[in-house]
TrEMBL record:
<feature type="transmembrane region" description="Helical">
    <location>
        <begin position="70"/>
        <end position="91"/>
    </location>
</feature>
<feature type="transmembrane region" description="Helical">
    <location>
        <begin position="103"/>
        <end position="122"/>
    </location>
</feature>
<dbReference type="InterPro" id="IPR019402">
    <property type="entry name" value="CWH43_N"/>
</dbReference>
<comment type="similarity">
    <text>Belongs to the DRAM/TMEM150 family.</text>
</comment>
<keyword id="KW-0472">Membrane</keyword>
<keyword id="KW-1133">Transmembrane helix</keyword>
<feature type="signal peptide">
    <location>
        <begin position="1"/>
        <end position="26"/>
    </location>
</feature>
<dbReference type="GO" id="GO:0012505">
    <property type="term" value="C:endomembrane system"/>
</dbReference>
<dbReference type="GO" id="GO:0072659">
    <property type="term" value="P:protein localization to plasma membrane"/>
</dbReference>
<keyword id="KW-0812">Transmembrane</keyword>
<feature type="transmembrane region" description="Helical">
    <location>
        <begin position="166"/>
        <end position="188"/>
    </location>
</feature>
<dbReference type="InterPro" id="IPR050911">
    <property type="entry name" value="DRAM/TMEM150_Autophagy_Mod"/>
</dbReference>
<protein>
    <recommendedName>
        <fullName>CWH43-like N-terminal domain-containing protein</fullName>
    </recommendedName>
</protein>
<feature type="transmembrane region" description="Helical">
    <location>
        <begin position="134"/>
        <end position="154"/>
    </location>
</feature>
<keyword id="KW-0732">Signal</keyword>
<feature type="domain" description="CWH43-like N-terminal">
    <location>
        <begin position="4"/>
        <end position="222"/>
    </location>
</feature>
<dbReference type="GO" id="GO:0005886">
    <property type="term" value="C:plasma membrane"/>
</dbReference>
Length: 246
């Protein structure tokens, strides 16, 4: 049913609009430097002042008030929608291609852990809970790579829309980008020089946009989702098979 496709669309739009509006607010208050400025003269160092700005990562964009509230709300909404997306997609696989249920369960686990990691990162301000924030973000980034990879494998194995001839290569490209850029981001993020940190910030925004496009592509599958699959999700269809523990 067409309305189910609004789930991946909403997930992508909430993440896209929320993060960029947060960045816009942070930039307008001079809390983060411009993504276009690779050599800011007012970069915050060890001795911060009211006039300095930070590296424009997604996390630093949501560190200070008032944008911190919007950042937390965006991450919470995105984490919830992503978890629902993972569960519903798993139900779709169980209903249409149950032979791949084990692979789908592994995929669901990685997706669920990624959602929890993002939730922790979004609710632990790096200015006060740096370790928890970066640990949650690291877990989320890593699990997203595995989740994207396994979803792409499932796209190649399962016929859900008969448009896999287009979706599969597109998702292969998106997954390759996600993995390569994540590795590059991890290497650059720990560097001391500003130009590398700024490049890491650019990579983080690329990862966010790439993931949003990846999620958006599942609007095609969700056009073929039906309310009857929710009974599979709740374990009430026919033999009442459970979705998560079957």
């Amino acid at each position: 049913m067409f309305l189910w496709s609004l789930l991946p669309v909403s997930l992508s739009l909430v993440s896209l609009i929320g993060t960029w509006v947060t960045y816009g607010l942070a930039y307008s208050y001079d809390h983060v430097c411009s993504l276009n400025n690779w050599a800011p003269g007012n970069l915050c160092g060890n001795n911060t002042t009211m006039a300095c700005c930070e590296v424009p990562t997604i996390s630093s964009s949501g560190t200070h008030l008032p944008e911190n509230s919007l950042f937390t709300a965006t991450i919470n909404a995105g984490s919830f929608l992503f978890m629902v997306f993972c569960i519903f997609h798993h139900a779709h696989i169980l209903e249409r291609n149950s032979v791949h249920s084990m692979l789908s369960r592994f995929t669901l686990v990685f997706g669920g852990v990624a959602a929890v990691g993002a939730f922790v990162a979004g609710n632990c301000n790096p200015a006060y809970l740096m370790l928890a924030h970066y640990l949650g973000a690291a877990v989320s980034f890593l699990c997203i790579c595995f989740y994207s990879l396994l979803l792409t494998v499932l796209t190649g194995k399962c016929v859900l829309t008969r448009m896999e001839w287009f979706l599969y290569p597109a998702r292969v490209m998106s997954t390759v980008v996600q993995i390569i850029v994540t590795i590059g981001y991890a290497i650059l993020f720990v560097q001391e020089e500003y130009k590398y940190k700024h490049l890491a910030a650019v990579f983080e925004w690329i990862l966010s946009a790439n993931l949003e496009l990846f999620e958006l592509s599942f609007a095609v599958e969700f056009c073929f989702f039906s309310s009857s699959m929710l009974s599979t999700l709740l374990g009430k269809k026919d033999e009442e098979k459970p979705i998560l523990l079957a």
